[in-house]
Amino acid sequence: MPELPEVETIVRTLRPFVTGRRIVDAELPSANANGAGASILRRILREPEWRVPSDFVSAIRGTLIQGVRRHGKHLVFDLGTSNGAKSPRCLLIHLGMTGRLTCETTPEPRSAHTHLVLSLDEPGRWIHYTDIRRFGRWQLFEASGEALRSLGPDPLEIPFAEFAALLRSRRAMLKSLLLDQRFLRGLGNIYADESLFRARIHPAVLAGRLTRQQARRIHWGIRETLRLAIAAGGSSIANYVDGLGNSGYFQHEHLVYRRTGEPCVRCGCRIRKMLIASRSTHFCPRCQRLSRRVRKTARASGRGVA
User: Fold this and answer.
1) Which residues contact 258 (CB under 8 A, 6 or more apart)?
2) What pLDDT, on a 0 to 100 scale, did the predictor assign at position 111?
3) Number of folded domains in the chain?
């Protein structure tokens, strides 16, 4: 699933081609004559409580794309008013596990998994949305709405003092906390593991028991990992490509993620894997040592910490 660096890379590659452009039309290529269009649209527009209009295509046709930005793991297209809209709206896109959003110079070819094509007013520009597993979603809402306010602060923007205060107030294992989008928005399994390794902090340590020095290392580790990943265009492990269809290469720079059994780049100790919050968690048992007291407490509670 694309995380913050991948979504940020898509935004940066799309921005020059879509900002200031108008959506001339929207098509559902995977619809067929048997009425599959409505079914496919319902799958793309997953959240009815966000009041997505049933006439989604006509609702966005003719709208001006004023800008595109990232909000956590979401892409947000800021739209102007059109078609009777009383105020500016936002088009929110979450790519799910296999979604791709690319700027193309032709409306073709379209795969069997191309579910939405936006035609822009600049000649020779189309936005293709493809999604093999259809876990992604598109949502249209008022720009002044509450749709995204449940998410936590951005890890690249939060000051250390605020970050440390948030840590002190939590008792969850650190890895599971970093995956909680209400705590920080944008981090996922890959970059939580990589950040904790850079910070030399065990993923099972309890957040509220961290020292200020440890909190500072984590704050730095997260920002440094994300900065390097964005510079590398993200991690292309499965389906991810940027807004122009290019793969990232940060997967070649992973220090612990999916390197179980391989030697640690720092100390040579074998990388281990454990489950935290039902997610595979990769770490070095020597560089990210867990104190005996914490290990004993975790085992007594049935957490099975390595």
Assistant:
1) 237, 282
2) 75
3) 2
Same domain, 221 and 113: no
Residues with catalytic function: 2-3, 73, 279
Please state, in angstroms and as integers, the Cα–Cα distance from residue 95 to each residue in 39, 124, 155, 175, 291, following that order.
18, 24, 20, 23, 39
Q: From CA 131, how far away is CA 43, in angstroms rounded?
A: 11
Which pLDDT belongs to residue 49? 43
Contact 219, 160 (CB under 8 A): yes
Residue range 220-232: average pLDDT? 98
Say whether pTM exceeds 0.90. Answer: no
Which of 114, 142, 170 terminates a domain? The answer is 142
φ/ψ region of 254 (left if φ > 0, alpha if ψ in -120 to 50, else beta) reads beta
Element (H, E) at 197: helix 189-199
CA–CA separation, 210 and 187 (whole Å): 20
User: How wide is the angle at C-alpha 59 spanned by C-alphas 67 and 139, nearest 5°?
Assistant: 65
Question: What is each CA distance from 96 to 27, 135, 136, 167, 291, in whole angstroms?
Answer: 20, 5, 4, 28, 37
Task: Compute the distance between CA of residue 6 and CA of residue 16 in angstroms, rounded to an integer.
Answer: 17
At residue 48, the pLDDT reads 46
Instruction: Please name the residue that has the structure tokens 């949502």.
Output: 139
Which CATH number covers residue 174? 1.10.8.50
